[in-house]
Fold these 2 entries.
Entry 1:
Amino acid sequence: MSAPPLYARVERELRARIAAGEWPPGAALPTEPALARRFGVSQGTLRRALAALEAQRLIARRQGAGTYVAEATSERALFHFFRVEDAAGRRPVPRSIAHRLDLRPASAEERALLALRPRARVVALERLRLVEGRPAMLESIALPAARFRGFALPLHVELEDELYVHYQRHHGVTVLRVEERLTAEPAPAEAARRLGCARGAPLLAIRRLAHDALDRPVELRRALLLTRGLAYGVELR
Amino acid sequence: MSAPPLYARVERELRARIAAGEWPPGAALPTEPALARRFGVSQGTLRRALAALEAQRLIARRQGAGTYVAEATSERALFHFFRVEDAAGRRPVPRSIAHRLDLRPASAEERALLALRPRARVVALERLRLVEGRPAMLESIALPAARFRGFALPLHVELEDELYVHYQRHHGVTVLRVEERLTAEPAPAEAARRLGCARGAPLLAIRRLAHDALDRPVELRRALLLTRGLAYGVELR
DNA sequence: CAGTGGTCTAGACCACGGG
DNA sequence: CCGTGGTCTAGACCACTGA
C-alpha cells in the first residue's frame, strides 16, 4: 500500500471542486501560483494535475489569459460526440427536431444502465436528426428525472442548442465521456416511416451511455442511423 | 513563425529514429541521462518527449528496467484494434481462418486510400473470424505489395498470430493508428453463406485504414460483422 | 546493490492576452 | 505594460528491477 502521487491527489481534488460547482463552467480558476500555494505543492506538480484535467477536457487553458472551466459548446458536442461523416469524410452539422417528450417510470434496462433506484422515473425524449437536409437518425433518449427536474424543450421545431449544452446550462450536468455499442438492425416500421427507408432496411443502431465529470451515467440514448451516403467514423490508437 | 518547442523536436527525432530501425521493436533505448546528453536537452525535456511517445504507444517504459520500443502483441492488437463485445460487454478472443491470398493490381480505391502509384500491386487476403466459435466477421484486406514483399500465410487453418504482429515481425510494419468508417449493409449472397445468415440480413460494414509510426497508410481492410449477440464498442471523450 | 524510471521542487525565461 | 500560462533547466529523492 502506498499513497497515490501528489499530482493525482491534486487532480482528484480539483475535479471534485469543479464538479461541486466551486468554479462554474466558464469561470476562471485561480492562477497557477495561487493554486499551488493553496494545495501546498510546487507549481510543476500543480501543472501536471492541470494538464491531466485539460486532456480530459474538463478545463481549457489559454496562455496569457488564464485557466477556465470548460463550457459545453455545440462545436464540442458535435465534433467529439457526433461521429457521422459524409462520403468525403466531412462532418456535416445536423439539425434536430424533437417530436415527443415524456416523464415515465424507468424500464429495467434504464434502471440498470443509469444506476437508478427501483421506482425511479426518467425523462424520455424522441427526436429526429436531419443531415444535409434529409432524415438520417432517430433517437430515443432517457434521462434520470432526479437530475433533470423540469426538463423542457419545444417540440416540432428545430432545436437551437445541442442537448449537451442544454444539460449543462439548465441542469448542471457536464457530459465528458460516452460509451457506445453499435449493431446493424433491420428498420422497424415506425423508424422506416420517419427515416424514409424501406421497412427492414439495414440501419446502424447506436446505444450510448453518457457520463458526467465524476463518471456517473447520466444519459441513455438509443439511435438508429440510416447510413445512406453517411458513415460513423472512429479513430483507434 | 517560430520554431516548434524543443520537446517536440526531440519527440520527432526519436520517432524517426525508431521508425528507421535504429532501435528495433523490443530493444531498449539508452537511459534518460544518455539520451538527454545526446540531444543536448535537460532530462526533464527529454522525459516530456518520451511521455508523448509512450502515450502514442510507440515505446513502453518500465520503472527500474528501462525504456523499450513497443512490440506488437496479440493482446494489444485485440484490445485496441478489435472492438467486438458480447452482450455482457466482454471482449471475446476471435479465431481467424484465411481462405484466399492473392497478388493483384490495386483498384482505384486502393490506390487512392493507400497512396499507391498508378500501376502498383496489392497483396489481397480474405479471412473469416469466429467469435465464441461462430462465424462472425468476413474480412478483405489489401496491403501494398511493395512494403509486404513475400507475404505468406497458411490458408484454411487457424492463424496463430494476430496480423499486426505478423506485419511487424515479418515486414517491419508497425500499426499505431487506424481510422474506421462504419455503415449498415445488407448481406451479399457470398457473405451470407460464409457467415450463416440470411441474404440481405443487416451487417455492420467496417472500412478500416491502418497507419504506421510515421502515419503512412499501410493497410485497407473491409469487414462485414454479423452483430448477432455481438456489438462494436466505442468510447468517446 | 547499482542503475533505472517516477516524483517533486525551485526558479529562469519566453510568448501571449488584455487593459 | 503586467500577469498569465508555456518552456526549459538542474538537481534531490524515491520505488522498482534485475543481477
Entry 2:
Amino acid sequence: MSAPVKAEGPKEQRLTEGGRKTRERIIETAAELMFHRGAGGTSIPDIQAAAGVSASQIYHYFGDKQGLVLAVIDHQTDTQLAQQRPLLDNLDSIEALREWCDRAGNRQDARGCEGGCEIGSLASELADSDQSARTSLISAFDRWEGPIRSGLARMQARGELSERADTAALATALLAAIQGGMLLSQVRRSSTAYRQAVSAVIDHIESHLVR
Amino acid sequence: MSAPVKAEGPKEQRLTEGGRKTRERIIETAAELMFHRGAGGTSIPDIQAAAGVSASQIYHYFGDKQGLVLAVIDHQTDTQLAQQRPLLDNLDSIEALREWCDRAGNRQDARGCEGGCEIGSLASELADSDQSARTSLISAFDRWEGPIRSGLARMQARGELSERADTAALATALLAAIQGGMLLSQVRRSSTAYRQAVSAVIDHIESHLVR
DNA sequence: GCATGATTGGAATGTCAATTCCAACTTGGG
DNA sequence: CCCAAGTTGGAATTGACATTCCAATCATGC
C-alpha cells in the first residue's frame, strides 16, 4: 500500500464499506482510461461515465484531479509489481531473468503492443509537470528496480556473478531496457524491439557469470 | 526534410519569404513548448503568445493542431539527428559509440535532466492516440536507428565485430537503452541511469569484438 | 501599377473540462 | 431510535481551448 495523498494523519476520513468500493472502482477505472489515453487525455467526465459515479464522488475521495492521478500512480505500481510476483522476488538466475522479461513481452503481444508500460507512460507524461507525481514515480521505479538488484546481488553473494559486476548498475540498465524496449514496441506495434533490448542486457549480465 | 502534412502535390501553397519565416517560428516555438509540456499540454494560445503570432497564422500554415504536431515531430527528428552529426554517421568503433552517447548524457545534465528525449517523449504521448503521429514516429526512430546499425555493420564487415553479432538487434537495443535511460534520468533528475544503461549495452557490443 | 493570392489581426463561436455547491440520502455507533 | 458523519446526485459556475470567419494588408508576377 501507499499513502493516499500526501501528509495525512490529522484529517484521515473514515470509509464506509460502500465508500471503499466506490473509491477503488474510481481508481481502477481511471487507471485503465489513463493507460490508454494518458492522464491529460482522460477527463473527469470520462471517468464518471466509465465508472458510473458522479463528480461529487470523485472530488469527495480525491480532492482534485491531481489527487486522483497520484492515487492512480500508486495503484498502478502496486498492481504491476503484484502481477510480476513471485517471479520478481526470485530474479537470481539468468533463466529467471529471461522468463520474467519474456512474460512481459508476451503480455505486450497479447494486447497487440498497444500501450507501453503502465508506469513508464505516466512517468513520461508527468515527470516534468507534476512535482508530486514525479516523487511517486521515483518511488515506483525504485520499488521495481529493488527486486532486480536484490536478485543480482544474491547471485553475486553466491559467487555466481563476478565480484566486478556492478549489480546496481546492471539492474538499472535492465529496467531502462525494459522501458525503452516497451516504448519502441509500442510505436512499432511489435514486441521485437522489447525482446532484443532486454535480451542484450541479460546477455551482458550473463557475461559476468563466473566460470 | 519531410512532408509538411500528408498527401500534398495538388494544393501546395506557395510561401512568401516572410511566410516561410513565420511558419518556421511557429514550428520551433511549438517544438520547444511541447518538449516541456507535451503536445496535449501545449495550447494554441500558448504557442500564439510565445511565437508572437495570431491564431490565423497557425491555422493558415498547419490546418489544425494535429497538423502542427506532425510538423513538430518531423522538425524534432530533423533537428535532433542533425545535432548528432557527424558523430551519428561514424558510429563504427566502440570509442565512437561511447563518445556519442556521452554527449547526449552531458546535454541531459546541462538542462538539469529536465525533459526526456525530444522524440521519445512525443512517442510515448502520441503513439496510441494519433495514428499519423505514430507513422511519423516510426520513421523518426528508423532514421535514428539506421545510422547506428550501419556503423555496427561496418565494424562487422571490417571483421572487427564477430559474425555472430546481430547488428540490427544490437542497434535496437542501444536505442532502447537510450530511450529508457533518458526516461529514468528524467524522473530521477540524474543522468546516472542513462549512462549506466547505455554503458551496459555498449559493453555488451564490445564483448562481440573479435580478438 | 494592378490583380491575385499570400498573410495577418482579432473577434466570435461552440464545446468541454475542472471544480464548486447544496440538498438529499445512507450508515454506523451509542 | 437518533445523530453526526459519510455518501451521492445533479445542477451551476467559470474558464480555456480549438476552430472559424471576415475583413484588412502585403507581396509579387505580369
